[in-house]
Amino acid sequence: MRKCWIVLILIGLIVTSTGCSEDNYPEDVFASYLSSWEEMDFEAMYGYLSKQSMEAIDKQKFIERYENIYSGMNVSSLQVESLIEKKEKEMPEQDSITFDFRVSMETLAGPIEFTNKATLVNEENDRGKGWYIDWEPSLIFPSMEEGEQVSVQMLKAARGEIRDRHGSGLAINAKANVIGIVPSKLGENPDESKKRLANLLDVSVEEIDGELNASWVKPELFVPIRTLPIGEQDLQEYLAVPGVAIQEKVVRTYPFGEAAAHLTGYVREINAEQLSELQDDGYTAGDFLGQIGLEFIFEEELRGNNGGHIFIKNADGSFKETLAKLEPVPGKNIQLTIDAILQAEIYQQLSGDAGTAVALNPNTGSVLSLVSTPSFDPNAFVRGLSKEQWKEWSENPDSPFLNRFTNRYTPGSVFKTITAAIGLKTGVTSYDGVRRIEGLHWAKDESWGDYYVTRVHEKSSVDLKDAFVFSDNIYFAQEALELGTDAFLKEANMFGFEEEIEFSFPISPSTLSNDGIKSEIQLADTAYGQGEVMMSPIHLAAIYTAFSNNGNVLYPFIIGEGKRQVWKKNLIKPDIVKNLNKYLIQVVEDPAGTAHGVFIPGMSIAGKTGTAEIKSSKDDQNGTENGWFIGFNSDNPELLLTMMIEDVKQRGGSSYTISKVRDIFEFYRQ
């Protein structure tokens, strides 16, 4: 016995329970083998094999075969149990014995369960005398024979589509032509072929070489280079290049491209880092993942659940038998309240500018468009994004990837409607009250030093209607100072400042100040939307729904069928709403009104302009201005539009924005 143990130590056997002792029962050896199997310790399993089995398959191939099959099937919850009837053990007289066992496991194609038989032989080999497993491929799966293989096919779930209120596709699955190369067919001059293809696809030869040098590439395999929409190119010019081939497949497609890029977002193939984080959620290599926008926000609903097919192939590669099959479950389709045609029109109006626009139905709060410019083509991330294009977008100072409709900005004079509502509610302001204001500059007293509030229209007697029509900063500054900081903040915060808005896109709360209003000067500036006030265009649009809903502020929403939900009930009294509406209409209809450029004969539009100054100090001559407009068609409210364009200082201020707004209202009423 001692000699036997010395032999075992010298040859480094992993399994010490087999061989050497004539007292080893086959049941014990079999139980240890099944235990190693259940733990997926394939190296230990190999140590139990008979001499003949080891001669038929070497250790490395044995381990790799099990590992490849089990990892490919994504095996989990593996259970391997003996079906040997429990009784007092007896050493068999014969040199072989057969035991029954059961295997169950979860796989990517669903559960697999089977019963099988294993034969153990009693032999003496270089590991000693004992019982060993007489292994054959059927132990993996009962019907499997030598030369056959287990094949795993992932059945990809179709991603849910995103469509607008009328069913027009914003993010859909559409056929496309994949242009690629079969390396072995590049011909006698592969460099020339790659150069010709690079010119046709408007990519660099280096990018093509990068794809061809991937680790998985083999001479006979198709290597995709770029994806093209169906019907947009003459494919013959591609096929004329040696080595080029074309495959048709379904890819994620964004029909409205740049016009809806920040709204829809885009998908990209999952990378290694993302896969390591998400593989427990069912993601596998080759899956596509929403990166930004609605593709990211609704990833869980859109992606669906992949299925799988696990089957045995004959030695000649033909299908033999299905082991498990799970049909894929397609992702959920999402219908938006967005009007894609309006979305495209607003994008065209903003094209060439850095800005944003939010349009919604003021009666329901349903969002009709969310536009941010400049933009990018989301299709490029699916079909192939060149380094040059990425560099151009990344280095653009106007930041095409910045989503401006979720960002926050200084609102300027569009904020004055809030100040007016507060003044009327508290009694500081009356409809017929007049403020005596001289000149274009005003400071409360000497304590303000050289700081003053300015206005652009000189009028000595200013009532509330005049203050709206001429957008008089001084009037609203005086109004807030009379009210006082505490009372002003108390009333203003009721409009949703410092609150999270329940909306599909995450939006940072709007704020009235960074850390409280510290002075009368800051309070005065806050009253007309300057100071430290920061608002999102979506929040601003939501506040103005009060003027179409008798003082109730509605939640904006982008998913659903037009169900109206009140966010701020009775925020503004009905009589105040009625009168402020009249003033907002005069801002547009009065020839002296700051928004008269929006006036459309036969259409009543209530609106407010704003020119927000963006500068480091009062005397900063290098600052810029953002031009704002917010308004709605008041006679038959169907469209409430908020628009902001950056850097309008040398382009007419908010007047530059107004011309675009007018065209959109004209377009919408057609």
Automatic annotation (TrEMBL):
It is found in: Membrane. SUPFAM superfamilies: beta-lactamase/transpeptidase-like, NTF2-like, Penicillin binding protein dimerisation domain. Its EC number is 3.4.16.4. It catalyses: Preferential cleavage: (Ac)2-L-Lys-D-Ala-|-D-Ala. Also transpeptidation of peptidyl-alanyl moieties that are N-acyl substituents of D-alanine. Residues 156-322 form the Penicillin-binding protein dimerisation domain. Keywords: Membrane, Signal. Pathway: Cell wall biogenesis; peptidoglycan biosynthesis. Residues 1-22 form the signal peptide. Residues 26-147 form the NTF2-like N-terminal transpeptidase domain. Residues 355-665 form the Penicillin-binding protein transpeptidase domain. It is an enzyme of class 3 (hydrolase). Belongs to the transpeptidase family. This is serine-type D-Ala-D-Ala carboxypeptidase. It comes from Ornithinibacillus massiliensis. The lineage of its organism: Bacteria, Bacillati, Bacillota, Bacilli, Bacillales.
